[in-house]
Specification:
Length: 635
């Protein structure tokens, strides 16, 4: 089926090309619409080349396949030249260079089994879907046979049927119409049609390669959809797949966080296999037991390449995650379930992590110099904590210096650790007791009773009492004055500054650096337990316990807690606080935001001239919401 008008059908191409749409107005690509004045010369040139090749004869197999997919079956109509029978069915021309009618009839019959073996469709789990030949439209064979040089003038059509139990969401198409003795590979012009949909994909499929297509049965694109409806449909596809729309492309995301730099790469297993010799018992699958060895191969492949510098210093590569994914997992930020994956449609997700030696990340130089015939370019999306999202392309066709991505933050934007809270205390009410003067007054009253010189002794004691009054004595707590307490406002300010500082400390990356930052706000004996409490409160379970980065803290309630005051020595105080913390975990362009409400009692006491949290007891924890969204360049 060919599009006859602009709004009739959307045609997408694959095989290392952007998805395209052809219509009367021109060629629609992901980058805009090219005018027909540009497209016509290209199309005409391709037709001339194809006709010239047909006249000259093909040294390789060229087939044209249209696959029509319904909810219960896929019918593949394969058109091939008679030359394929010569190439693959061991037919021998006679002394006059002709193939007899009998040989060609035998070749046509043998080719039925050949195609069911070499043209395959797999489901989302990589399981091969059985097929059978349901129809053959042979070419007319002259009684005298066909000369070898005329084989390209004759073509036959085979129809293969693949049946499903349920409507497929994913199908992976492969062809292996080739022979190991051929120097050049065969080509299949493949077009995939979904019944009831105006969305069609087309492209060139090489032997051994695969293309995976996702089918939308709930809301397929109408064959008469307008441009706006088409764009809306494409946006829905992107949202449904969380932005990972191609199943044969390498995806790269560079995250620049305050405390680390991450390079996240998603590579099709088929592409990875062209770089690494991944051992497997079944060529179609990578079993669980085989994934550990494959993981080590990936580590060895990437450990000593792609040098990276942060803040002017070389940093080592750390492997945060190496996971294997099948088609059923759309959200690659989630922790992948360990299971066997199809080699035709599976992917490996690699997270490389780089940590600065000290301070926050302010300057980055990240390179990628690992290329292959199947990985010639790596197009990255760069997501920095400061500045705009941008794109960067690593390419084997660039110089080494041009393959270094450079980024730096404005000095004013580089965050710093929150200042510790200085101990400012109210004066404790004190009562001064002149002990020496009191003792002398007692002597003035009782010593004269023991001597005859009463008035002299009394006078001497009173004079001495007056003299000692200002210089000899001690201070005690005032028995009648109330002990002063911090005002609610001052207590709230101290508690919130200390508490927010503990969350900010988590931006420092490694446990050693986090502990060092936490010591500004937390008593040493509380460091480990509070660190674990904070991590637990920010963990996102569906992402394997990954700790989210705090995006905001909202203190919704707080007051001095009188019930706990008696257990603290003055001037320590207890403060009950309720807050909402929002955190995000982001991988491969997927932003997972979580909001949690906490209520806790904080014990705060002076330590060495500074206020510090000495105890935190969480009374309640409540998950408020969870949202998954996609990064957009206009954000």
């Amino acid at each position: 089926m060919q599009p006859t008008q602009h709004n009739t059908e959307r045609l997408r191409t694959f095989s290392l090309q952007p998805f395209l749409c052809v219509g009367i107005r021109g060629l629609r690509t992901d980058f805009g619409v090219l005018p027909m004045s540009f497209c016509l010369p290209v199309i005409i040139g391709c037709l001339i080349m194809a006709c010239s090749a047909a006249e000259a004869g093909h040294p390789i197999s060229v087939t044209e396949t249209h696959v029509f997919v319904t909810q219960r079956s896929a019918r593949a109509r394969i058109q091939l030249f008679a030359e394929d029978l010569l190439l693959f069915q061991q037919l021998e021309p006679d002394s006059e260079g002709k193939l007899s009618e009998q040989q060609l009839q035998r070749g046509l019959e043998q080719h039925r089994d050949f195609l069911t073996e070499r043209v395959t469709i797999r489901d989302a789990d990589g399981i091969l879907i059985p097929s059978k030949v349901t129809d053959v439209v042979p070419f007319e064979i002259p009684a005298e046979g066909i000369p070898e040089e005329d084989l390209m003038l004759y073509s036959a059509t085979y129809e293969l049927e693949f049946q499903f139990d349920n409507p497929p969401e994913f199908l992976t198409f492969q062809q292996d119409i080739t022979d190991e003795n051929f120097i050049l590979p065969s080509e299949m012009k493949l077009t995939i049609h979904q019944t009831g949909s105006g969305n069609v994909i087309a492209g060139i499929l090489q032997p051994g390669s695969a293309v995976t297509h996702r089918f939308d049965w709930e809301s397929p694109l109408s064959p008469s959809a307008s441009d706006d409806e088409y764009k809306s449909w494409l946006q829905k596809q992107r949202q449904d797949t969380l932005g990972i729309t191609s199943y044969s492309s390498v995806y790269s995301f560079i995250y620049i966080e305050p405390g680390e730099v991450r390079h996240e790469i998603l590579i099709p297993l088929a592409s990875l296999a062209s770089v690494l010799s991944i051992e497997r018992a079944d060529p179609a699958f990578l079993e669980i037991a085989e994934q550990e060895a494959a993981t080590e191969q990936v580590r060895d492949w990437l450990a000593e390449v792609n040098p990276t510098r942060i803040n002017g210093a070389d940093v080592e590569t750390e492997f945060s995650r190496i996971d294997f994914y099948g088609l059923n997992l759309r959200d690659f930020a989630r922790q992948a379930e360990v299971r066997r994956v199809s080699f035709a449609s599976g992917r490996v997700g690699i997270i490389l992590r780089y940590l600065p030696a000290e301070n926050f990340v302010s300057d980055v130089e990240l390179s990628w110099d690992t290329f292959h015939s199947s990985i010639r370019k790596v197009r990255s999306v760069v997501i920095p904590w400061s500045g705009q999202i941008e794109r960067f392309e690593f390419s084997r066709f660039k110089t080494r210096d041009d393959n270094i991505f450079r980024w730096s933050a404005d000095a004013a934007d580089v965050p710093g650790l929150a200042e510790p809270v200085f101990r400012e205390l109210p004066e404790m009410p004190r009562l001064r007791v002149p002990l020496a003067s009191c003792a002398l007054i007692v002597c003035a009253l009782f010593v004269p009773l023991l001597t005859t010189r009463r008035w002299q002794v009394t006078l001497a004691c009173l004079v001495l009492a007056v003299v000692c009054w200002p210089i000899a004595g001690t201070e005690v707590s005032h028995p009648t004055e109330p002990i002063p307490r911090l005002s609610s406002e001052r207590a709230r300010g101290i508690a919130e500054r200390l508490h927010s500082g503990t969350y900010q400390s988590l931006d420092f990356g490694t446990e050693r650096r986090i502990y060092s930052a936490l010591e500004q706000f937390v008593d040493g004996q509380l460091l480990e337990s509070l660190y674990l409490q904070l991590r637990d409160g920010l963990a996102v379970r569906e992402q394997g316990g990954a700790v989210s980065r705090v995006s905001s803290i909202e203190y919704v309630d707080g007051a001095l807690s009188e019930s706990s005051q008696s257990s603290l020595d003055w001037p320590g105080f207890s403060y009950r606080s309720t807050w909402i913390v929002a955190g995000t975990v982001e991988h491969w362009g997927h932003v997972h935001e979580r909001r949690n409400r906490f209520s806790a009692v904080l014990n705060i006491e002076p330590r060495g001239g500074w206020w510090k949290i000495t105890k935190m007891h969480v009374d309640s924890q409540e998950s408020l919401s969870g949202v998954t969204s996609l990064r957009k360049f206009q954000d």
